[in-house]
Each structure stands twice: as structure tokens, then as C-alpha cells.
Specification:
The complex is a heterodimer of chains A (about 375) and B (about 325). Chain A has helices at about 10-15, 20-50, 55-85, 85-120, 135-140, 140-175, 180-190, 195-205, 220-225, 245-270, 275-280, 285-295, 300-315, 320-325, 325-330, 335-345, 350-380. Chain A is mainly alpha-helical and about 375 residues long. The chains are: A mainly alpha (about 375), B mainly alpha (about 325).
């Protein structure tokens, strides 16, 4: 494999002996070697580009390059450092270890943040500045405004329902003598499924066929017509009271409740027994134990789980996108609009403006989340 | 400090703890589940299972039955041979192209899991056990990048892949034509996964006992040897947890694959193939459900076989931006 080809690129950079050049040397190594790596990877990819080759062979080559390649690169870089004069070696080596991470983060996260902000002030093809036009569009276009409103609903409803259901279930399951872990696994199971898979799963539940287009095979319509009676309903087109949005939120609640439940359940189990026993001996009812002891004890965990879900709900994309007809059904959400404008309408400026707004909305929640997470670690 | 230090969020790591005596014991104030509790739990579990059961059952029913009756009707006569078929899976795998999509998903997911872990583990080792200028600042910078949502990176990266980057008319990054290649997706997932990976692995590797590192150093081991022979084996719990999180994240991802790999017949991964199928044959339920089940099969397998690591991985990943 042509991974070896990257070796010749580095020695020139390495063979600069004077000590005052050490910083330059470090810099050259940290930047030059990973860039050489990328180029080497790219060369080995000539083969993978051949579309007509056998898929299994392509898979094997991809796995070999992807899995072994990255390790060999580190090993080779470490060997190169050993050729350096002894006094430089240990000064350079740390940068070989962190260099690739820093290069990739610079290219894939730091540069994009700056670039997206710049692009958000430019026009569709990013050829001229348009000032705040893209932001004006975001806050005036009816479909965009709906997406902002819908996302606001998502970030309230989904965490609220998922966390309270998860908490209730964790508390109840905690009392089971047998089968607690089985019950918890089954609630947790949807976490393994992609949002696309979950969307397909629930499309079957919500399935509706108008008269003359075949029989109605959706579970919800079967339940509705046999319990309430009347005609089957096109659930996903119900715009009154934003009901169809709620039906989409149900999918995310279904996926994420298990996560809240598992995390909260382990927090409940960490509450000291004595605390609960003492309350019971003092005559507290089970509900009082729950409200006055369990909930306050696990409040930090509830906060972390809730912020996590808020961020996920802010960025929800797959469910709405796969269900389709977002505009017709008024189910647009912010992240879905971003892809719509950037990828499908090829309007980089508007897509970038939506991304920036998402970024600004996520930052405070995320900062808070990371700080809570760190604080929990410190308590340990 | 124990070598088997738990992951950085013990409160979040839902490894089942020992049963407490209070539960089902005979101590004062004992409560155990009454009928109300048990019935509620069973009802909720059934409610949660029904949608998946519908997909599974529909995927094994022949087309003419799927078209005319709800999947729950099959429960009425589970043993009649005309009720079941595996033809749907054959159709999905062969004519539907899901065999190809499955292989593509593997080719995307495995390297997109291994590459960020390897890079992050080396960086985490350096942040924990090597002395260099800027160590603290760089680590804070990496953790700070957790706040960047994926959406912020999509436009610049796809422009980079299609046309490179130039500053003031000077091409500083050549046009690599990475759009639509596996490498492009691997690198993108690596970039998006790195802050979390570095953060989690540094927390873990830093907590390893320093006496081990020092005695290895006295024995003349190089950093590379210490890393590979000592740190990696000792960090298996943290590595496994992140690996499972990243594996699921990439396998179930639609957005990154959609933007960087595209929806061509040849390249598309399972999530994209499934999303396309919804768009094109939205009412072709026998095909949709079997395709959906193909895409769920591997994560479900991981779920059932590695459940403890699986849960730990997902909770560890809960700070991903």
C-alpha cells in the first residue's frame, strides 16, 4: 500500500539541526507530517474510486487502509523522531502525538466555524457580500418562522415528556423484584435504531390511505376506528393544534426515553438506602419519598439529561426530513431548513445563516451541559 | 487509585449496582412492586415494543397480505405457512441494493470509528503524560470545540472537498476531490468525533496510576511503547465505550453521509438507501420494513451482545455537540 510514500516527505522537514529552529521544526512536523498522511491516504484511494470493482474487495481495502493506516502513520512518525539529535527528541515527540488531532480539528471544526460565519453574510453562490440579508430572510420567511416556532416546541416537549416518562419508569422499575433489567433493556432498545429507522417504524404506525388507495394497515387508525369509530385519519397532515408536529415528536420521545430512564435509574440506585428507610420509618408516603428525597437527590442528573435532550431536539433533522412534505405539512424545523437551503436549493448564504443561528442557540446550553458534566466528575 | 477506574461519569454510567437489601428484602419499611406497578410496567414495555414488532412482523409477510390487512392479523394464525415469507429480504438485498448499502455502511463505519479513537488516544496520552508547552491551553481548546454543532461544519467542508480553499486568490488547500469518497466521510466523522473522544480518553488516561508509567520509564520504555503496551490495554473500558458510541453514531448517521457521500446507487449507505426508499416507495411496506430491519440488525446485535458497554458508551457520549 502506498502509505509508505509519505515517509520521504518528512525527512527534509526534520533535517534542520540548530536549536533555535526547534520551534519551527516542531511546527513543520506537526503540520507537515499529517498533511503528508492525508495525501498518502488519498493516493491509496485511487483504487477505492473505481466504482466497478468488486464491493467486497473495496470493503477489504477500505478497512485495511482505514484501520491499519492510521496506526502505521503514528508509528512511522515516532520512528522519524528517533532519528533526530537526542536533545530534540523528547521536545518534538509530544507534538507528533497531538499533532494529527490538532490538524484535523483545525480543518474540520475551527476553520468551518469562521468560514460559515463569513459565508452567512454572502449571497447564494458566496460571490458577493449581502450584509444581513440572509438573517433578515431567516426572520421573515413564513416557512423559516414556522421552523423556529416548531423547533422551540420540540425543545420543550421532547425533553419534558422523555425525562418525566423515563423518571417515572425508572422509579417504578426500581421496585421490581424480578425483571427490572429486562424491562429497562426493552425500553432502551430504540436507542440502537437510527432516526431514519425509527421514522420508518412510526410511519407504519401512522399509515393512512385515502379511500380508493388500498386498505388502511396502520395500527393507530385501526385502534382509532375500532375504539372511537369514524373514518381513518391522515395523522401526519393534521395541522390543527400542531398535532402532526406532536406525532413527529412522539418518535423522538420513543427513541430517547430509554436513555433518560437508564441514566436516572442508576442515579436513583446511588441514593443511600438509609435516607429512604429513615423517611419511611418517619411515616412518609411513597409519593412523599419520591418528591422529597428521590427527586432532590438526583436533580443534577436530571439537569444533565435534560440539557442533552434539549440539544438533540434543537438539532433534530432526520425524522422530519425522512417523513417529507415538511412545507406542506408545516412541520419544518431549523436543522432541516438548513439542509434544504444549503444542499437542495444550493443557497450557501441562507444555509450558513441558519447554521449560525443554530450555533448561537446551542452554545449556552452546551457550555452549561459541559460544566455540569465536569462538576459531576469533581463530586466523584 | 484503582486501575479499573470507571468512566468519567460514574453517576451516568448505568452499570447495574448491587441489589439493595431494601428491595424485596424483609427489612422495615420495605415496599415491593404492587399490582399497579407491575401492570404499568408491562403496559409501558408493550407500548414501547409494538412499533418495532410491527416492522419485524410486516417484514416477514407476503406482499398481498401486507397490502390488505394490518400486521397484527398475522398473530391470529402464526403457524400457517402461507402467512410468512423471506422473499421481502431477498428483494431488499438484491434488487433493492441493500446488500451493497450494508457493505458501504461497514466500509464507512469501521474506519470512521477506529481513526478517531487512535488519533484521540495518542493525543490523550500526550495531554496526560507528556510535558510540552501549551498543553493546558490546547486541551481546553479541544474541549471547547464540543460546543460546535455539526451543522456549522457542513458548508465549509463540502466546499473544501469540492474546490479546496483559497485566501485572497491563493490556493492554500488543493482541490482534493474528496466529495463522494469514503475517505472524505471518514475524515469528517473523525473531525466531528475528536473533541468528545479526546475529552473522555484524556480524563480516563490521566487517572491511570503514575507509578506504572514511571517504572516503565525506568526500565527504558519509550513513550510509544508505554502507550501501546501499557496505556492502551489499561484503557480498554474507556476505548470500548467510546468505540460503541462512535460506531452507532456513524452507522445511524444520515446527515454526514448524505452531504459528503451522496445518494448514488454505488456509494449510498443504509440510512440513505432507506430514506430514499421512503421517498420512492413510501407505501411499499413489505420492502420498507425488511429494509428497515436490515439497517437495524447490526446495532441491535451490538445492543444485545455488548449491552453493558453499549449503555456506558451512549451515556459517555451524551456531551457530544
Amino acid at each position: 500500500m502506498s502509505i509508505e510514500q509519505r515517509e520521504p516527505t518528512a525527512p527534509e522537514a526534520v533535517a534542520v539541526p540548530p536549536s533555535r529552529w526547534l520551534t519551527a521544526l516542531r511546527l513543520a512536523l506537526a503540520i507537515g507530517v499529517p498533511v503528508g498522511t492525508v495525501v498518502a491516504f488519498w493516493w491509496s484511494f485511487g483504487f477505492l474510486r473505481q466504482g466497478d470493482a468488486n464491493r467486497l474487495v473495496i470493503l477489504a481495502v477500505a478497512l485495511l487502509v482505514g484501520v491499519l493506516g492510521v496506526f502505521i502513520v503514528f508509528w512511522a512518525m515516532d520512528q522519524l523522531v528517533d532519528w533526530l539529535p537526542a536533545r530534540f527528541r523528547e521536545g518534538v515527540r509530544p507534538y507528533v502525538f497531538v499533532g494529527p488531532a490538532l490538524v484535523i480539528l483545525t480543518v474540520f471544526l475551527i476553520y468551518p466555524v469562521i468560514n460559515t460565519i463569513v459565508v452567512s453574510f454572502r449571497d447564494a453562490g458566496s460571490s458577493g457580500f449581502v450584509g444581513l440579508d440572509n438573517y433578515r430572510f431567516v426572520f421573515s420567511d413564513p416557512s423559516m418562522l414556522r421552523s423556529l416556532r416548531n423547533t422551540a416546541t420540540w425543545i420543550v416537549v421532547v425533553p419534558l415528556v422523555a425525562v418525566s416518562t423515563g423518571l417515572a419508569f425508572a422509579t417504578l422499575a426500581d421496585r421490581l423484584r424480578h425483571g427490572e433489567s429486562v424491562a429497562k433493556s426493552l425500553i432502551f432498545l430504540p436507542m440502537a435504531i437510527s432516526f431514519v429507522g425509527a421514522a420508518v417504524t412510526w410511519r407504519l404506525v401512522y399509515s393512512y390511505r385515502p379511500q380508493g388507495f388500498g386498505s388502511n394497515i396502520g395500527l393507530l387508525n385501526a385502534v382509532k376506528t375500532s375504539v372511537v369509530g369514524g373514518e381513518p385519519v391522515a395523522w401526519l397532515s393534521q395541522q390543527s393544534w400542531n398535532l402532526n408536529n406532536v406525532y413527529l415528536m412522539v418518535i423522538m420521545v420513543w427513541v430517547q426515553t430509554g436513555f433518560a430512564m437508564v441514566v436516572l435509574s442508576s442515579a436513583i440506585k446511588a441514593i443511600p438506602d438509609e435516607l429512604i428507610e429513615a423517611a419511611r420509618i418517619d411515616g412518609a408516603t411513597e409519593f412523599q419519598v419520591f418528591r422529597r428525597i428521590i427527586v432532590p437527590s438526583i436533580l443534577p442528573t436530571i439537569v444533565v439529561v435534560t440539557t442533552y435532550m434539549v440539544i438533540n431536539a434543537m438539532k433534530v433533522f432526520d425524522i422530519v426530513f425522512v417523513m417529507g412534505n415538511a412545507e406542506a405539512n408545516h412541520t419544518e424545523v431549523v436543522a432541516e431548513r438548513m439542509i434544504r437551503w444549503f444542499f437542495i436549493q444550493s443557497n450557501d448564504g441562507r444555509g450558513a445563516a441558519i447554521a449560525v443561528i443554530l450555533f448561537l442557540a446551542v452554545i449556552p446550553v452546551m457550555v452549561w451541559n459541559v460544566r455540569q458534566f465536569r462538576r459531576q466528575e469533581e463530586i466523584r | 487509585m484503582s486501575v479499573t477506574a470507571p468512566l468519567p461519569a460514574p453517576e451516568l454510567a448505568p452499570v447495574p449496582r448491587r441489589r439493595r437489601t431494601r428491595r424485596g428484602g424483609g427489612t422495615v419499611g420495605t415496599t415491593h412492586a404492587g399490582w399497579f406497578t407491575r401492570i404499568t410496567i408491562v403496559a409501558v414495555v408493550l407500548l414501547w415494543l409494538v412499533p418495532t414488532a410491527g416492522v419485524l412482523i410486516t417484514s416477514f409477510r407476503p406482499e398481498h397480505l401486507v397490502e390488505t390487512s394490518g400486521w397484527w392479523k398475522a398473530l391470529g394464525h402464526p403457524f400457517s405457512t402461507g402467512e410468512w415469507t423471506i422473499q421481502n429480504y431477498r428483494d431488499a438485498l438484491d434488487t433493492g441494493g441493500f446488500r451493497n448499502a450494508f457493505l458501504n455502511s461497514l466500509a464507512v463505519t469501521v474506519p470512521a470509528t477506529v481513526i478517531p479513537i487512535t488519533i484521540a488516544a495518542f493525543a490523550a496520552y500526550a495531554f496526560s503524560w507528556m510535558e510540552f508547552r501549551g498543553r493546558y491551553v490546547l486541551f481546553v481548546l479541544v474541549v471547547g470545540l464540543l460546543v460546535v454543532p455539526l451543522q456549522m461544519a457542513l458548508i465549509p467542508i463540502s466546499r473544501l472537498y469540492v474546490s479546496g480553499a483559497s485566501v485572497g486568490g491563493v490556493q492554500i488547500i488543493p482541490n482534493l476531490q474528496l466529495n463522494g469518497t469514503f475517505l472524505g466521510v471518514w475524515l469528517a466523522h473523525t473531525g466531528f468525533g475528536l473533541p468528545l473522544a479526546v475529552y473522555l480518553l484524556t480524563n480516563y488516561i490521566r487517572s491511570l496510576p503514575s507509578s506504572i508509567m514511571e517504572s516503565a520509564k525506568i526500565d527504558g520504555a519509550s513513550h510509544f511503547t508505554i502507550f501501546w503496551r501499557l496505556v492502551v490495554p489499561l484503557s480498554v473500558p474507556a476505548l470500548a465505550a467510546f468505540a460503541i458510541f462512535q460506531f452507532l453514531w456513524v452507522w445511524n448517521d444520515l446527515l454526514v453521509a448524505y452531504v459528503f457521500l451522496g445518494g448514488t446507487q454505488q456509494n449510498r449507505v443504509l440510512t440513505i438507501a432507506l430514506a430514499n426508499l421512503v421517498g420512492q416507495h413510501g407505501e411499499n411496506w413489505q420492502l420498507l420494513t425488511s429494509a428497515a430491519f436490515i439497517s437495524m440488525s447490526l446495532p441491535l446485535l451490538v445492543f444485545f451482545s455488548l449491552q453493558r458497554y453499549f449503555v456506558r458508551g451512549l451515556t459517555a457520549g451524551s456531551v457530544k455537540g
